[in-house]
Amino acid sequence: MDIQQVIHQTVTENPVVLYMKGTPTFPQCGFSANAAAILKACGTQFTAVNVLEDADIRQGIKEYASWPTIPQLYIKGEFVGGSDIMKELFQSGELQKLLDAAKG
Amino acid sequence: MTQIELIRERLAVLSPQTLEIRDDSAQHAGHAGAAGGGGHYWLTIVSEQFAGKPAIARHRMIYSALGELMRGPIHALSIQAFTPEEL
């Protein structure tokens, strides 16, 4: 399976996936830390993928969404955005709605 | 030309009414995620061209204007993108 297929499988088989630097417990970047904190604040179970552990995923995820930065949030296989967009959606209450819909 | 001047020049295609760029690199120096060595920048941009476009589309327009700067010179970019009407 090539790396794009691996990513596709991860984001479609898990309802909420966050590609980040480090882990939710030990984030290695401020933007990733914010993204994980937002998901925690929403009370969401999510799958975290640490891109620092796999150089192919780190590069591949940028190509997958044609988005040059990390973190990246996916809900039900769909790219939602990076940390600035997550913050906006969180503050407007939209993120909670998206996450609640993904659970159902 | 400084990195900020270069960013400003690239973003001119979006005809920004306001463009504020801050270099936050010092705050992030040395952390593991920044091992590539690129800079951290913070950007507020106001442009008519964002009208009717969701945040993802606005960010993509910015990334596309920055081109290869996003693959190295800019390690991280925090973006606030508005239309004049949203201010």
Q: What does it look like?
A:
The complex is a heterodimer of chains A (104) and B (87). Chain A is 51% helix and 16% strand. Chain A is α+β, with helices and mostly antiparallel strands and 104 residues long. Chain A has one domain: Glutaredoxin, CATH 3.40.30. Chain A has a 4-stranded mixed β-sheet with strand order 2-1-3-4, with helices on both faces. In chain A, strand 3 and strand 4 (78-81) form a beta hairpin. In chain A, helix 1 (3-13) packs across helix 3 and helix 2 packs parallel to helix 4 (83-92). The model of chain A has no long low-confidence stretch (mean pLDDT 96). Chain B is an alpha+beta fold. Chain B is 29% helix and 26% strand. The radius of gyration of chain B is 13 Å and the shape is globular. The relative contact order of chain B is 0.25. At the A-B interface, helix 2, strand 4 and helix 4 of A face helix 3 and strand 3 of B. Chain B: Belongs to the BolA/IbaG family. Chain B: This is BolA family transcriptional regulator.
Mean pLDDT of chain A: 96
What is the largest interface, and how many residues per chain?
A-B, 21 and 17 residues
Number of domains of chain B: 1
CATH superfamily of chain B: BolA-like
In percent, how much strand structure appears in the residues of chain A? 15-25%
Name of the CATH homologous superfamily of chain A: Glutaredoxin
Tally of separate helices of chain B: 3
CATH architectural grouping of chain B: 2-Layer Sandwich
* Low-pLDDT sequence parts of chain A: none
Low-pLDDT windows of residues of chain B = none
Give the count of helical stretches of chain A. 5
- The amount of helix of chain A comes to 40-55%
- Report the average pLDDT across residues of chain B: 90
Radius of gyration of chain B: 13 Å
The order of strands across the largest sheet of chain A is: 2-1-3-4
Protein name (chain A): Glutaredoxin
Organism (chain A): Parachitinimonas caeni
Pfam families (chain A): Glutaredoxin
Keywords (chain A): 2Fe-2S, Iron, Iron-sulfur, Metal-binding, Redox-active center
